[in-house]
Amino acid sequence: MSVLSLLGPEGLDWLFVPGADVWVTDMVKEEAVRDPDPGSDQRTGQRDILATWFADNADRIHEQPTVEGEEYRKAMTNWRDAGSKPESKPSWSNRGDRSILSAMTVIDGLIQEGEAIVAIMDDRKVRAALRVLELDMDMMSTETFVIWMSETFDIKQADTAWQTIKLIMGDSVPTLRPGDDEPVSTFKI
After folding, report:
1. pTM assigned to the model
2. Does residue 4 contact residue 158 with C-beta atoms inside 8 Å?
3. Which of 95-104, 128-137, 144-153 has the highest mean pLDDT?
4. For the chain, first and last CA: distance in Å?
5. Which of 171, 174, 105 is nearest to 136 (CA)?
6. What torsion, rounded to 10 degrees, do the Cα atoms 30, 31, 33, 37 define?
7. Where are the domains of the chain?
8. Which of 168, 64, 175 has its CA nearest to residue 124?
């Protein structure tokens, strides 16, 4: 989501184009809109875009509560109650990823015959962990999602969107590697 937010709310709205339900875990949402810590990614503009987009689309997005999210909320409450000392702040590290892993096992059990889960995910380690769980789901990168929007749904802005993302993100852009198993044709509906 944070990569799509680089395109503004219009890029995020592409998540609704296929007509599927949009799910996000509580921790992924929290990480996307939180105030950045000093020394971490300071793209506050993207966080503002995401916060507004979540608020504007609250009725269209399913937020999946997770144990990871609940534990983090408790830790943050305790931290604030203890005086909010920066050196004692609970870590964000991998919490969103862990929330996805736990949420997928719940969501996988809710899928009916003929339905599918398609997760947009760039983190290779999380993708590998989800494959090990052998859930009934497909994964695609943000790059593949943008190509899908262009080729299958004929969104003209998507034709150049990945180049825009690459220019903004530079060396940190998540890209497909040779051998990544996610041909766009797999996801055509």
Report:
1. 0.80
2. no
3. 144-153
4. 21
5. 105
6. 120
7. 2-174
8. 175
